[in-house]
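[INFO] parsing input record for Pseudouridine synthase
[DEBUG] input buffer:
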Amino acid sequence: MERLQKVIAQSGVASRRKAEALIASGHVTVNSKLVTEMGVKVSAKDVIEVDGVPLTQESFVYYLFYKPRGVISAVKDDKKRKVVTDYFTDVPERIYPVGRLDYDTSGLLLLTNDGDFSQKLTHPKHELEKTYVAKVTGIATNTTLKPLRNGVKIEGRKTAPAKFKVLSADIATKKSIVELTIHEGRNHQVKKMLEAVGLPVEKLKRELYGNLDLKGLNPGTYRQLSKKEVSSLLQLSKEV
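[DEBUG] output buffer:
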């Protein structure tokens, strides 16, 4: 017997968190009976449906995607804007993004249909290091960025310590390029952290996720992760 939300996540319909939201909002039935409570356990004999569609177990797939700017980190958008899954029309599995990147942020994003994998990588206790490169307004120096090393307050809550590096600073244009590594995943976190030290972000790109990079990819392209890479990410998440 397994918890209902776990079974839904394993089927590739959604992440564990999204599966819980689907249950709570009345989208799930078990043996034709509506289930809205968490903790219900099901077996292989039970007929589970999400919005009237029976669950089927897909093979798990894992993709590394170079998300362009101007694309939503979702599987659909009410405003009809381009979403990340629009780039995966040849992939038969129902994949979804692991975490998110802002609409105007480019860079490395993972997609999968493995709910447990997604849950382990995005859980607040286990989030992996992510490295961003930001073009900012202002002259960045080690002194300017030093508060980030101890954490800064964002909306009343202090961030975890971050690592940084000044890649360039142009006095004439008053622009700088900064590399920032964090392991949290709060909303607009990198932009808010840099703004907190007086360096508003003009452009942002995620370069690294754990031990993965964008080597060999262009914006809008993707590749499948190897079994070794998947195992390595899960191992890193345990060590965090």
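[INFO] The chain has six helices and 17 strands.
[INFO] shutting down worker
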